[in-house]
Design a protein that fits this description.
Mean pLDDT: 87
Distance between the termini: 49 Å
Strand content: 25-35%
Number of helices: 2
Oligomer: single chain
Strand order of the largest sheet: 1-2-3
């Protein structure tokens, strides 16, 4: 069996010119040359499932990779918040217990008040 590669993309609804116009504006922003006065910062958020091993993994050797059992125990969920500035190679990821409007606002506020690129 050969491996398959999949690409996921947001496909605009049929005849939705407004969606396409907004997407083109975003893509135009990404294509602008770097200007430190106007950084282009991207943001993404994603929920993740936290897993706990139920058996001790077998360490890797020169001959074999590390092996883990397929069984696991659910250990809750977390939300990852990613900010990046691709044209300068900067990124920041934080994890939170939830993904609410307040959590999102706190992450943006932290980004605006503590520029880690300067530290």
């Amino acid at each position: 069996m050969t491996g398959r590669k999949l690409e996921y993309w947001v496909i605009p609804p049929n005849a939705d010119a407004e969606f396409v116009a907004h997407m083109e504006a975003v893509l135009d922003t990404y294509a602008t040359p770097y200007d430190p006065r106007f950084p282009v910062v991207c943001m993404d958020e994603q929920p993740v499932q936290l897993l706990k091993e139920t058996r001790v993994p077998i360490p890797a050797t020169k001959e074999r990779p590390r092996r883990v059992d397929y069984e696991y125990e659910r250990a809750g969920v977390a939300s990852l918040f990613l900010f990046c500035e691709p044209l300068v190679g900067w990124r920041q990821v934080t994890a939170r217990e939830r993904r609410t409007k307040a959590d999102w606002a706190a992450e943006v506020a932290a980004l605006l008040t503590n520029d880690p690129r300067e530290g």
